[in-house]
Design goal:
By secondary structure, the chain is α+β, with helices and mostly antiparallel strands. The protein is 23% helix and 23% strand.
Length: 303
């Protein structure tokens, strides 16, 4: 018998406002990172390794109460900042998220999206929450607001996703690398595709087109690590296969590579199978001809 799944715990509660409308809300984390964590051990007896804070000049261990924060100006020259000075600059904590602007969803570059959260209505907030959710969905708008989380102020985007209001912290514009600084992109910008090659490339993309289903994509590397840990925990001796160096194959010309890729994609596609004889459609009762309920829109996945 499986264990019951624990309910999610809210990490923040307060109010969401737009205009004079106030909605009591709670924030929940929308992702749970599934990483495999390792500890550092001594290879001799597998004892845990302790990290110590050591003075680089004297080699002596420094007690925690003597540690201070310093910003490096030049090597060996620092500006020391006290905790009190940092606290005086902390953004004013607030339990209110005020939507400042509503923007079109297409205007936000996906690269700006950072950490996702779910916004849920608290007691008494169900009706205005649903009102905002539906109004944003029908106008294709995203709300832009600010929130203080863990002493840091964030700009956030609130967007409807099916029956849920999602909130994503946004990167600031100066945190995004300007692609103009990448030299190799200049060469690509100067090349004009050949029409025949472009046509075949578009056919190849069409043959590989599919609806996005995030459940199809697994973290295969993490699964292999967990399998390795399981086997070693059971005492299995692991044999590491010898690395095989593959000889460099000649690079085919672009058109040949496109055509070969298109042929391979068509062979794999179910649509390339021989069509079966079509049967006459059976009559459907009137009650069964109602349109299906619209499924909730899927969340945008993060890389």
């Amino acid at each position: 018998m499986g264990h019951p799944v624990p309910m999610a715990r809210a990490l923040w509660s307060g109010t969401l406002t737009f205009g004079l409308v106030t909605i009591p809300i709670k924030l929940y984390p929308a992702v749970q990172r599934r990483t495999v964590r390792f500890n550092q051990l001594d290879g001799e007896d597998h004892s845990r390794i302790q990290q110590r804070r050591v003075n680089a000049r004297t080699g002596e261990e420094v007690p925690y109460e003597r540690l201070v924060k310093g910003y490096e100006l030049t090597p060996d020259r620092y500006v020391v900042i006290t905790p009190e000075e940092l606290e005086s600059l902390d953004p004013k904590r607030s339990r209110t998220i005020e939507i400042e602007d509503f923007v079109d969803v297409s205007e936000i570059d996906p690269i700006l999206y950072d950490a996702p959260y779910y916004v849920a209505p608290a007691e008494g907030g169900a009706k205005p929450y649903r009102l905002l959710l539906d109004a944003m969905a029908q106008t294709n708008r995203v709300g832009i607001a600010r929130i203080v989380l863990r002493t840091k102020e964030h700009v956030v985007a609130l967007r409807p996703t099916g029956p849920v209001l999602e909130m994503s912290t946004l990167l600031f514009a100066d945190e995004v690398v300007d692609p103009a600084k990448i030299e190799e992109l200049e060469a690509a910008a100067e090349v004009e595709p050949v029409k025949r090659e472009l046509d075949v490339a578009k056919q190849l993309i069409g043959s590989l087109a599919a609806e996005f289903d995030p459940s199809r994509y697994k973290d295969e590397y993490r699964e292999r690590i967990l399998d390795l840990i399981e086997r070693k925990a059971q005492g299995e001796q692991i044999e590491i296969p010898a690395a095989v160096e593959s000889a460099a194959s000649p690079v085919p010309d672009l058109m040949s590579a496109l055509k070969a890729s298109l042929d391979a994609a068509r062979e794999k596609s179910p649509a390339s199978a021989k069509p079966k004889a079509r049967k006459a459609p059976a009559k459907t009762p009137a009650a069964a001809r109602k349109p299906a309920a619209k499924a909730p829109a899927k969340r945008r996945a993060r890389s």
